[in-house]
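User: Hey, quick favor. My workstation is busy. Could you predict this chain's structure for me?
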Amino acid sequence: MTQFIEHSLKLIYHLTFLILHSTFYILHSLQTALLRLITLFCLMIPSLAFAQQAKTKKSLPEKKNAHLPYACIFEDGAYPATVIQRNTVTKDSTVFARIAVEIEGCFVIGIRFPKGSKFNQDSLQINDIDDLGNSIIQGQHGNYYIIQAKYEPF
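Assistant: No problem, here it is.
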């Protein structure tokens, strides 16, 4: 009987040792996994901060035509336009397709009429042009010009 008790105590001792050893192994594995996750997280924080830093918005330059009450897309230069000339006295009108209009600071400052046109000598009042390319300019002798410019290279 004493051998049975002695044998049972040894068995309990070995089972307890096996359970404790397994528990320590599991705890060690969890600890290693947790340390790896913490290390990975610590390595990712600077890269996330760098990614956010790279996405900072640049300030937009001040628009050249901020004085106008609408958005003007035209930069200084010549643009193709359809120009309708009307005379309020004689009621005549002439249509010019795809002639150049000079724009500076979102104002139409000149119209390049074809050579030999009687309107080459007409002095024009400077007028602004809207974002759709529309403008009406008053000339001399009852002439006025309806302009529809296109925002494309001439």
